[in-house]
Design a protein that fits this description.
The chain is built from nine helices and ten strands. By secondary structure, the chain is of the alpha/beta class. It has two domains: 87 residues, Arc Repressor Mutant, subunit A (Orthogonal Bundle); 137 residues, 3-Layer(aba) Sandwich (Rossmann fold).
């Protein structure tokens, strides 16, 4: 048998390890819980009602199989987040469908990541009838959109129309799917999903903004097909 044959860059042995890791119901439940974005171990423990030592064991198995990764929070540095390795499970199915009137991307200042995410989402879905629109907000809005975000959108031909940053309290309403794209914002305002996207404003250089935009674009590509307006699903 050709054990070095690869699919999506993974050998047969690596793929077998992934399938073995996913063969346990608790580990599959962990993967399902991470499908929308990053979750802290304490949040995951509460959702799945697993003892901390058992959760740690299952996470180690998923980590060794190349399915789960850990990142340190940019907000509360004592906190870590668990997330799925990008692309690891692409061949195993999409995110479960859900209803939403709007998608609201939230970061702290509403000056970069959340504005870029809303622009990317609307650029992807705006041409199709019935798609869910997106907007953005912040937990501590800045006076204006960061020029680095505007420049990154221009470089990547994303139709970003900067709007004055707004507070989440003035934007959120019933029926919204809230996605925090900033660790600090998630720790202030837990939403329906969390994406641990590195803050490009920390360095302010073009590469940081490009990385953030690419990260957001990949996540949106995976999630957008699963989000539907309530009337579409009910019909």
């Amino acid at each position: 048998m050709d054990t070095e044959r690869t699919v999506e860059g993974r050998t047969l042995a690596q793929r077998a390890a992934m399938h073995h890791a996913l063969g346990d119901p608790s580990r599959l439940a962990i993967v399902d819980a991470l499908a929308l974005g990053e979750v802290s171990p304490s949040e995951l423990q509460a959702v799945l009602d697993l003892p901390s030592n058992l959760l740690a064991h299952h996470v180690r198995v998923l980590d060794r199989a190349g399915i789960v990764t850990r990142t340190r929070s940019e907000g509360d540095r004592r906190r870590t987040y668990l997330g799925l390795v990008p692309g690891a499970l692409d061949a195993l199915g999409a995110v479960a469908a859900r209803d939403a009137a709007r998608v609201v991307f939230v970061c702290t200042q509403n000056s970069a990541r959340s504005q870029l995410a809303a622009a990317l989402w609307n650029a992807r879905s705006g041409a199709r009838h019935g798609d869910v629109p997106a907007t953005s907000a912040g937990t501590r809005p800045a006076p204006a959109v960061h020029p680095g975000a505007v420049a990154a959108a221009r470089r990547h031909h994303v139709p970003l129309e900067p709007v004055v940053p707004r507070h989440a309290d003035d934007v959120l309403r019933a029926g919204d799917l809230v996605i925090t794209v900033c660790d600090a914002a998630h720790e202030e305002l837990p939403g329906d999903a969390h994406w641990s996207v590195a803050d490009p404003a920390r360095t302010g250089d073009d590469r940081a903004f490009d990385r953030a935009l690419t990260d957001l674009a990949e996540r949106i590509t995976r999630l957008a097909p699963a989000i539907h307006p309530p009337e579409e699903r009910s019909s």
